[in-house]
Amino acid sequence: MLQIKRFYFPVFFVIALFVFVAQRFSLHIPYLINNYLNDLLCMPIILKICQYVARQVQSNQGIQIPIALAFTLTLGFAIYFELWLPRQNDRYTSDIYDVILYFIGFMFFVWIERVEKSDSKDYKETE
């Protein structure tokens, strides 16, 4: 599990960047990847960046974003991108599947960040 925690952010970031660049160059991308993959990857990327910044500001590598704050950020993204922006700009569309994917990404982030901590705790107790 430690390996997943260590590598998910750069892998997700590169994949999301690839999809974004492919969309900008109007490359053919399968429908599900084009319309939903970045919504799934969004919250783990954003939350990991927030956690990194908090750790740097506080000079404490053990800081974790509280689940309630991560949930609130996810809800804020859902409201902003799926309710408010579609009403302001025709470029954006409201899609319940995007909201579901934001929250799946949130759950992945919480799970992967918490599991590693419990894994390392179990490891230390067995030494």
Structure in a nutshell:
By secondary structure, the protein is mostly helical.
Radius of gyration: 17 Å
Beta-strand residue fraction: under 5%
Record field, number of beta strands: 0
Which regions contain 5 or more consecutive residues with pLDDT less than 50? 122-127
Q: Count of helical segments?
A: 4
Describe the 3D structure.
The chain has 127 residues and is mainly alpha-helical. The chain has one domain. The protein contains 4 helices and no strands. It has helices at 2-24, 31-58, 67-88, 96-126. Helix 1 (2-24) crosses helix 2 and helix 3 packs antiparallel against helix 4 (96-126). It is globular. The two termini are 18 Å apart. Mean pLDDT is 91; it is low at 122-127.
Key traits:
mainly alpha; disordered C terminus; 127 residues
List the helices and strands and how they pair.
Blueprint: H1 2-24, H2 31-58, H3 67-88, H4 96-126
Helix pairs in contact: 1-2, 2-4, 3-4
